């Protein structure tokens, strides 16, 4: 981050960060890491690019026949 003279950084992945990446994010310039699970939570929280859908689950008595 110092190379770009940044005061803050955000790195996003749809996977997971390694332990080394997490350690590096704690050292030096403040960096926020957003992994796949965090990304999903943010998408749901702010309803980004999703359409909420109501679903119904049938009781087991119906499925036993």
TrEMBL record:
InterPro entries reported for this sequence: Restrct_endonuc-II-like (IPR011335), Restrct_endonuc_IV_Mrr (IPR007560), tRNA_endonuc-like_dom_sf (IPR011856)
Annotated Restriction endonuclease type IV Mrr domain residues: 1-43
Gene Ontology BP annotations: DNA restriction-modification system
The keyword Hydrolase belongs to this UniProt entry's keyword annotation: yes
The entry's keywords: Endonuclease, Hydrolase, Nuclease
GO molecular function terms listed in the Swiss-Prot or TrEMBL record: DNA binding; endonuclease activity
Protein's recorded name: Restriction endonuclease type II-like
């Amino acid at each position: 981050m110092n190379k770009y003279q940044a005061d803050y950084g955000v790195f996003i992945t749809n996977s997971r960060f390694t332990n080394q990446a997490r350690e590096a994010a704690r050292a030096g310039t403040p960096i926020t890491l957003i992994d796949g699970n965090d990304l999903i939570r943010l998408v749901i929280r702010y309803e980004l690019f999703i359409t909420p859908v109501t679903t119904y689950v049938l009781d087991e008595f119906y499925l036993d026949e």
